[in-house]
Amino acid sequence: MYIIIGGCGRVGAQLATMLSNDGHNVVVIDASSSSFRRLGTSFNGLTIVGNGFDERVLEKAGITEADVFVAVTNLDNANIMAGQVAKKLYDVPKVVSRVYYPDRERTYHKLGLDTVCGTTLVAHKIRDWVLGREFVSEINLDCNSQIVEIKATPKLAGKKVADIEIPNQFRPAVITRGEKSVIVSADTRIAVGDTIIAAVSVDAMEKVARLFDVEIDMKARNGLSSPIGS
User: Fold this and answer.
1) Nearest by Cα to 220 from 149, 151, 159, 170
2) Within 10 A of 219 (CB to CB), how many other CB atoms are there?
3) What is the SS3 assignment for 64-122?
């Protein structure tokens, strides 16, 4: 199978190595090239630096040929956005997103996404250990980008997403306008009052805030403000 994995933390790296060793064609995407050091020496797939919900990055990874897409960064929003893009825009047959919060899984399932919740799996494993069954320890992931919410100001109004994107530093992915949320393209125009959900490099937070004269709301990294749909 042709498999694309978004996120090369401990889970993503181990999964990629396992699938590669099983003879599958694997591509791993991560925002930080240093994350690829986690891949085992036996890994013989491809690595791409970028965000797993960026259409250009996905197309470079061969998303149109993918049989499976897996999103396993440490951010629920990033995983859900990546899953939505892979499923809705590219019709990948099998898509799964990792999430941390069990109470959100029902919402994500309504969006048509399959999810794996690490919190639930860990709880089940600890329960099994208490009952004398096998124990598996919790795995933490890391990432050099954050998912943030930005309220569009007059300075951003009328601009296209392509006009404000900063390569490898700032990438708008979803715009919420009223009660509707849509995955953006390079030609999507921004209006005053829009809520922009974007990926921002940790090192570029202050730069982005100054450049666009906006306040960055970090609460978006932990959960969706509203369902994402087209």
Assistant:
1) 149
2) 10
3) HHCCEEEECCCCHHHHHHHHHHHHHHCCCCEEEEEECCHHHHHHHHHCCCEEEEHHHHH
Q: Domains in the chain and their CATH numbers?
A: 2-130 (3.40.50.720), 145-221 (3.30.70.1450)
Contact 141, 116 (CB under 8 A): no
pLDDT tens for 119-172 read 666 666 666 556 654 333 333 334 456 677 788 888 888 999 889 888 878 888
pTM, whole model, 2 decimals?
0.57
Q: CA 24, 27, 30, 35 torsion: positive or negative?
A: positive
Nearest to 6 by CA among 67, 51, 60: 51
Give one DSSP letter per residue of 168-226, joined into a string. TTEEEEEEEETTEEEE--TTPBP-TT-EEEEEEEGGGHHHHHHHHT--EEGGGGTS-SS
CA-based R_g, the chain, Å: 18
Which DSSP category does 147 fall into?
A: E
Burial-class residue 93 by CB neighbours within 10 Å (0-12, 13-18, 19+). Answer: exposed
The answer to whether the beta carbons of residues 204 and 170 sit under 8 Å apart is: yes
Encode burial over 167-177: b for 16+ CB neighbours within 10 A, e otherwise. eebbbbbbbbe
What DSSP designation does 144 have? S
Contacts of 193 (CB under 8 A, 6+ apart): 151, 152, 177
